[in-house]
Amino acid sequence: MMLETCVGLVFLFALWVFGRSIIIACAANDFDWLAMPLGLCVVGLAVNALYFAAGLSIQSIQLVFLFALLACFMQVLRHRIERGAWLRLLGVCGVFLVLGLPAYLGGEQYYVFRGNHWDQWNYLDQGLALWANPYSAYQNASAIQFLAKDVLAHALPFISLRPATGLTFAVLLPAGKGNLHLRAFLYMTAVWAVTFPAACFAWERILKGSGERAKGPFLLLLPPLAYVLGFWGQYVFDINAWSQMASLSVLLALVFVYADLLRQLTGPLASKARNLTPTFVLTVLLSAGAFLFYPENAAVHALLILLATVLWCAVKRIIPRFTVVATLGLLIVSALLLSSLPYWEGTAGFLLNQTRLAATMAPAWWKYFDRY
Asked: For residue 44, which of 301, 279, 277, 347 has the smallest C-alpha distance?
């Protein structure tokens, strides 16, 4: 178990390094809480492009990420890392270890037998299929060609179903794969732990917007911990909703970063592009990452954000200038191109298919929560 735990901790560290590199490059120091959610977006978008567009195998992508991690870490070291940044990293690692504790206490009975074994096995098979061959091996292929390897035969139809979460999992698999079920459990534990800094960022912005300040770190960290460790976090974790778990930290960060962008766009300094660039870049990355990991949920959030934008302008009695509309249009186009251009079938195409399916399946009222 020690090896699998170390892989999870290294994964979190890599997300932190990639995210910190983006924050440093954009001079967006006010968003330091979001290093890991940003890193998750960068990893997801990069592996999606390298696998589907560049046609690289997972083993080649692992080498690319290793060199990229070293380069980004050198960039991070060249800039002064404040004590708070290290504490945030250690805090997320601590949440990861707490979330993983039941696996060590309960053993295989806990981390293998999950609440939704259908999704669990589908995601596992998807990750194994992506790890086994480059995308070229599956283009124009049928499941009959892989009957000798039943996992690949079963997984072939799932490659186009939100593949970003499975791709990221595949990148973490070594040649021997080790304890596959424990690796999968700790992978999702790490992904869910990334929600903690996003929740801290959101709660900090809520307090700031209301004119309040958390009196001590305990009051700042308590609500985010309750969100991650409480009922909602356990519910999503137990139903093995990999894509939902991967997207929640990104969507939570996106809502509050976009709010900051909207405030700047409708503020007195909106005419100065350099003031908007850091927030705009982070919003694009988070939007693209959210749509990549979970297109359906991202589409719902996009509609709600659009409604909130209209209400904001109405309450503030603001008539959006051309620059505001153009910036928001560029944001949407950039996010869609980043997430969908490498593999349209797994994002926008999948969203269209799910929309058609949902239109023909009206659930009973008591199933709304589960269906969402």
From this structure: 347
State how far the Cα of 45 lies from the Cα of 54, in Å rounded to an integer: 13
Under 8 Å between Cβ of 38 and 24? no
What pTM, to 2 d.p., does this model score? Answer: 0.91
Report the interhelical angle of 295-315 vs 348-359 (nearest 10°). Answer: 90
From 279, 262, 198, select the one nearest 206 (Cα to Cα): 198
3-state secondary structure 236-294: HHHCCCHHHHHHHHHHHHHHHHHHHHHHHHCCCCCCCHHHHHHHHHHHHHHHHHHHHHC
Q: Give the mean model confidence (pLDDT) for residues 51-64.
A: 94
Spatial distance between the Cα atoms of 372 and 370, rounded to a whole number of angstroms: 5
Burial class for 128, CB neighbours closer than 10 Å (0-12, 13-18, 19+) = buried
What's the rounded mean pLDDT across residues 236-261?
91
Share of the chain above pLDDT 70, in %: 90
Is the per-residue pLDDT at 169 higher than 90?
yes
Within 10 angstroms of residue 182's Cβ, the number of other Cβ atoms is 22
